[in-house]
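Researcher: Before we compare anything, I want clean individual predictions. No alignment, no superposition, just each chain on its own. First chain goes here; please echo the sequence and then give the structure tokens.
Model: Echoing the first chain and its structure:
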Amino acid sequence: QVELVESGGGLVQAGGSLGLPCAASGRTFSNYVMGWFRQAPGKEREFVGAINWSGGITNYADSVKGRFTISRDNAKNTLYLQMNSLKPEDTAVYYCAAKWGSMGSVIDQEYKYWGQGTQVTVSS
């Protein structure tokens, strides 16, 4: 069992930045591939990005590539999502998630553990 808790959400103006940490507890954090997903009102949950166990491999959705950066600190059991150049269409609840395996996945069903989510609102 892995417990995940996101924080850092809030209201930010378009063009601004926000960082979201995701604290993990329970089983060994470094055993898991970690992902970020988001869900906007009335829309399906969508993949944002993922990072492998060591942090050496990341992949991103095209919509956030070049603006968002995922990183992890296995010593602190924490995953991060740094969001820059935010747009109103980035408004959503952001979730961190954990899965077994060696590589990230865009498929949310492959992730076994989920946080409760944190709201990010970008005003125009």
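Researcher: Okay. Second chain, same rules.
Model: Second chain and its structure:
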Amino acid sequence: QVQLVESGGGLVQAGGSLRLSCIAFGRTFSSYNMGWFRLAPGKERDFVAAIDRSGDNTYYADSVKGRFTISRVNAKNTVYLQMTSLKPEDTAVYYCATDYTTLTSSSRWWSYWGQGTKVAVST
């Protein structure tokens, strides 16, 4: 079993930045791939970014490419999502997810999820 706890959400003006953190408790963090997804009101949960267990490979949704950066520090059991040039359409609850094998953009294949952290971007 793996427990994920997100933090770092908040209210920010358009054009601003936030850094989300997700700390994992349980099994060996370095053995797991990590991902970020988001759920906006009235929408389905969307893929944002993913990083493999080594941190060597990262993947992004087109909507955030060039603005968001996913990274991890295995020694701290933590994955980060640095968000810059935020837009009102980035407003959502952001979820951290982990899985031993998958890196897919489809949320159904990720095994463990955090409770989410809310990000609101004002105009």
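Researcher: What stands out in the second chain?
Model: The chain is about 0% helix and 50% strand. Additionally, The two ends are 40 Å apart (CA to CA).
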